[in-house]
Amino acid sequence: MDAAQFIWMNGEFVAWNDAKVHVLSHTIHYGNGVIEGTKAYKTDRGYAIFRLNDHTKRLIESAKMTLINIPYSVEELNQAQVELLRRNNFSGDNVYLRPFAFLGYGVMGVYHKNAPVETVLAAWEWGAYLGEEGLRRGIRLKIASMTRPANTSNMGKAKSTANYLNSQMAKFEAIECGYDEALLLDDQGYVAEASGACFFMVRDGKLISPPNDNTLESITQKTVIEMAQKMGYTVERRRITREEIYVADEAFLTGTAAEITPIREVDARIIGCGARGPITERLQSAYFDIVFGRNSDYAHYLTYIQEQ
């Protein structure tokens, strides 16, 4: 990770190396914290954060689900992220923002409501999550042996730090087996999502993506669906079995970090032509036009960072 100059922590900008917490912070021991992933792109008008308000709102909603009282409004956190980008003087094509809240030092034990809430905004330059080659050529995916937890035992709609142990173990398994990424099924055997991204497949010109039954409601997924429908594609939200993936014409992942990443292989089955498919490529190109400010129809999703 490339260090930046400043991190916003509990209402103040502090030097990157001074943003520290106590080793007995509650979240370190019991896992209750919430995170977001937001991205800014360098447009011809300077940096613009993509769907800033939607991401910040989801952070607040995740905190409400997990009983963490973030003491800042959506508007305050939005403005702090804008100022964070200004102060750090980034120069790369894109910057990843990580807003998060966690329980700090003060109490121990499973009951968490008396623990202080720490709210932090960090940002750093970060390249393609699954590699530049992955964006062009596509990645290899493995269906994980473990499933996404059921709604009866977890809160998949919350972007909670605790939920990512499941993702970590699945991703480790996939990489150890020689793949790039993991795909998790739900407890009924249907596709849920990748370790940190949503899944789409293409069959007979139609885009198909699973419902968010026990997974995060993805902002990028919504964007891709909106784009695809405006481009004239039919989009279907329904359950998907693993067998359907094996015979798909194309497949790809979506997410703030993953953007639109093609899938060329799943469980040793070549998907389509074994490379980025034509519909995936068209959607990918359209997505980058949007986030880099080259499509005025989606300008309302961009928050520009005006230099001062």
Notable characteristics:
308 residues; alpha+beta; 9-stranded mixed sheet; 8-stranded antiparallel sheet; 8 helices; 17 strands
Share in helix: 25-40%
Order of helices and strands: EEHEEEHHEEHEHEEEEHEHEEEHE
Tell how many strands the DSSP assignment holds: 17
Calculate the terminal CA-CA distance, rounded to whole Å.
27 Å
Q: What class do helices, strands and sheet pairing give?
A: alpha+beta
Shape category: globular
Query: In what range is the share of β-strand residues?
Result: 25-35%
* Computed CA radius of gyration, to the nearest angstrom: 19 Å
The low-confidence parts are: none
For the sheet with most strands, the description reads: 9 strands, mixed
What is the averaged pLDDT score? 96
Number of helices: 8
What does this structure look like?
The protein has eight helices and 17 strands. It is of the alpha+beta class. The strands form two sheets. Strands 8, 9, 10, 11, 12, 13, 14, 15 and 16 form a nine-stranded mixed sheet that branches. A hairpin with a 2-residue loop joins β1 (6-9) and β2.
How would you summarize what this structure contains?
The chain has helices at about 25-30, 50-65, 75-90, 130-135, 165-175, 220-230, 240-245, 280-290, and strands at about 5-10, 10-15, 35, 40-45, 45-50, 95-105, 115-125, 140-145, 180-185, 190-195, 200-205, 205-210, 235, 250-255, 260-265, 270, 300-305.
Question: What are the SSEs and their pairings?
Answer:
Blueprint: E1 6-9, E2 12-15, H1 26-30, E3 33-35, E4 38-43, E5 46-50, H2 52-65, H3 74-88, E6 94-103, E7 117-125, H4 132-137, E8 139-143, H5 164-176, E9 181-185, E10 191-194, E11 198-203, E12 206-209, H6 219-230, E13 235-237, H7 242-246, E14 250-255, E15 259-266, E16 269-270, H8 278-291, E17 302-304
Parallel strand pairs: 8-9, 8-15, 12-13
Antiparallel strand pairs: 1-2, 1-7, 3-6, 4-5, 4-6, 5-17, 6-7, 9-10, 11-12, 11-14, 14-15, 15-16
Helix pairs in contact: 2-3
